[in-house]
Design brief:
Layout: E1 9-15, H1 23-34, E2 38-44, H2 50-55, H3 57-61, E3 67-72, E4 86-87, H4 89-94, E5 99-102, E6 108-111, H5 114-124, E7 134-138, H6 142-153, E8 158-163, H7 170-178, E9 182-187, H8 191-194, E10 200-203, E11 225-227, H9 236-243, E12 248-250, H10 251-267, H11 279-289
Parallel strand pairs: 1-2, 1-3, 4-6, 7-8, 7-10, 8-9, 10-11, 11-12
Antiparallel strand pairs: 3-5, 5-6
Helix pairs in contact: 1-10, 1-11, 5-6, 5-10, 6-7, 10-11
Length: about 300
């Protein structure tokens, strides 16, 4: 379909646990559709394994020039940052990455496409871009930081972090400040009182951690919700949200859109006419692979 090298390159999703990951099916579908010679695997790598894994890439693959890159999930999103030759501005802001790309010389650059995944997932849930407004974020951590950066990209002017322990949100507060956003930290118990004031909500909590909020939700006027869980789906929070008539997106939507951005990055050095790729068609193929229904 496109002009490219005949050599095989290697890629994988890294993390622990990793057996459940849907990334291999999604990525393999994209590379097969594009006829790009990338062999994409899944590798169980713990945080304790990270240093050794990076230091033995040459032994594992022969040369880092043979690598297209890695998708990175927990618990490695922070652990791999110090191993990068270069990092994107987003990774500098957030301190976490989810994508590693190797250039023609075999040097690694860290990117964060979770931000794109969040932004596009909310758009798929009928978020209407505006010039101002706030994002409510449930939880703290790396995904919450990506949501903060997404809020900045969406031209929102503030974020509110709803957490059990405000002390755990201080890194997120620093990220918001670096992104030029106003930031407030509130207890999770205050969420239902303020939820209707936000333009969008991103829930980054574990699968059942927000179940207790369901009975406290208003019955109308809820903004679009992205709940980053995709198994089990729907979560109790997502189901209750949808029952009010409000729009929702899942972690599978986020996975799709961040994955499309990863595919763009991992194929750039391998496809001569990269700018001519029909990315809408690629996105459709990847959505089908994830059993996502798209119009």
């Amino acid at each position: 379909m496109y002009e490219m090298t005949n050599d095989t390159f290697y890629a994988a999703v890294l993390g622990s646990p990793i057996a459940h990951s849907k990334s291999p099916k999604m990525h393999r579908t994209a590379y097969r559709y594009l006829n790009v010679p990338i062999q994409y695997d899944r590798l169980e790598i713990t945080e304790a394994d990270a240093d050794e894994f990076i230091s033995t890439l040459t032994q594992r693959y022969g040369s880092t020039k043979r690598l297209a890159g890695f998708s990175v999930t927990m618990p490695l999103k922070s652990a791999l940052v110090p191993h990068m030759k270069h990092v994107s501005q987003r990774v500098e802001q957030l301190g976490v990455l989810n994508t590693v790309v190797f250039d023609h010389e075999g040097n690694a650059t860290g990117y964060n496409t979770d931000v794109d995944g969040i932004r596009y997932a909310l758009t798929s849930a009928a978020y209407q871009p505006g010039s101002t407004g706030s994002m409510g974020i449930l939880g703290a951590g790396g995904t919450a930081s990506a949501a903060i950066a997404a809020a900045a990209d969406m031209n929102l002017d503030s974020v509110v972090l709803y957490v059990r322990n405000p002390a755990r949100a201080q890194d997120n507060v620093a990220v918001a400040q670096r992104c030029g956003l106003k930031v407030d930290v509130r207890y999770l118990t205050e969420f239902s009182e303020h939820v209707q004031q936000h333009s969008a909500i991103v829930a980054t909590l574990p699968a059942t951690a927000a179940d207790w909020l369901v009975d406290q939700l208003p019955s109308h006027g809820l903004p679009p919700l992205l709940d980053v869980i995709y198994e089990p789906w729907p979560t109790a929070l997502a189901a209750a949200w949808s029952a009010t008539g409000a729009k929702i997106a899942s972690g599978l939507d986020m996975l799709l859109y961040q994955g499309v951005e990863q595919v763009k990055l991992l194929t750039e050095k391998l496809v001569d006419q990269h700018s001519l790729i029909d990315w809408d068609a690629v996105t459709h193929q990847m959505a089908v692979a994830l059993d996502l229904e798209r119009q």
